[in-house]
Write a structure and sequence with these properties.
single chain, alpha/beta, 3-stranded antiparallel beta sheet, globular, binds adenosine-5'-triphosphate
Length: 282
């Protein structure tokens, strides 16, 4: 089982003075999996991920990333791990192409830099200086630098913050391509739709602990949640019922109204609904 795991964490702990940022966290991510870490501001996501990346030292716990303890990272291990931090993206007077070519030189088996630039949708900006890029374009450059080494495991910290809707969709396609090619991906995000669109499993961190790990459709027993059926009565009021058998209720309403039910909607809790309940915001 161990070698099927890209990441294995047991009892991870990290405190900053009296502030326990991560308080006994267990986590397993399989090879080839797309795993999203969700959690409110200050929950401990970045601390956890940066320990996994080898950028922060832990106080306690066992951590294995691609079979290596990231507290003692080797150059060979660094070559296998790609990292997209929250906003780097400015390299003075260098152009996009120069920066990506330069970073490619750090890796043993880099992807063709021009292909990487095309994959992140920056071909038209290849000759632009990085300081002239928009926020979303800088983020795409960050992603290019994270993948140019053809990593086995890619960490993405809030990768689409600042993207316009079209750029997000393109980015999601890119992540799906990488996942289809076998790259393991760990991302943190505050966008629930992003987690739902990309992740095989999501983990919710609050107060430095992983409170649930599940597929997006089953988080918080969402798949068993009651459906809410609402419609408009002849008097114009909105009637709202919760039901485990919404189809039967809709059939009964259709019979009652003799056809179309005015203003009919049938909804189930979204990932955002169950997430907000889980972190105590609803
Ligand atoms: P966000 O969603 O806002 O990025 P997060 O889940 O990534 O939050 P962390 O950045 O891991 O949360 O922070 C967890 C806790 O640890 C917070 O209380 C934070 O203030 C604290 N913390 C994080 N980094 C440091 C640091 N370098 N020194 C002191 N305290 C820190």
């Amino acid at each position: 089982m161990e070698n099927q795991l890209a990441i294995s964490v047991r009892g991870l702990r990290k405190a900053y003075g009296d502030n326990v940022a991560v308080g006994g966290l267990d986590l397993e991510v399989a090879r080839g999996e797309v795993f999203a870490l969700l959690g409110p501001n200050g929950a401990g996501k970045t601390t956890t991920v940066e320990i996994l990346e080898g950028f922060r030292q832990r106080d306690a716990g066992e951590v294995s990333v691609l079979g290596v303890d990231p507290a003692r990272p080797s150059q060979a291990w660094r070559n296998r791990v790609g990292i997209v931090l929250q906003g780097t993206g400015e390299f003075d007077d260098l152009t996009v192409a120069e920066v990506v070519h330069h970073f490619a030189g750090f890796y043993a088996a880099p992807e063709d830099p021009d292909k990487v630039i095309a994959r992140v949708g920056l071909t038209e900006k290849a000759r632009a200086r990085t300081h002239s890029l928009s926020g979303g374009q800088k983020r795409r450059l960050d992603v290019a630098l994270g993948i140019v080494g053809q990593p086995e495991l890619l960490f993405l910290d809030e990768p689409t913050t600042g993207f316009d809707p079209e750029a997000r969709r393109e980015f999601w396609d890119l992540i799906r391509d990488l996942a289809a090619a076998g790259t393991t991906i760990v991302l943190t995000t505050h966008y629930l739709d992003e987690a739902e669109a990309l992740a095989d499993r999501v983990g919710v961190i609050t107060g430095g602990r992983l409170v649930e790990v599940s597929t997006p459709d089953r988080l918080g027993d969402r798949h068993e949640a009651l459906a809410t059926v609402s419609w408009r009565t002849p008097e114009g009021a909105v009637e709202r019922w919760e039901s485990a058998t919404p189809t039967a209720l809709v059939a009964e309403l259709a019979a009652r109204y003799g056809g179309e039910v005015p203003g009919l909607t049938v909804t189930r809790p979204t990932l955002e609904d169950v997430y907000l309940r889980m972190i105590g915001q609803r």
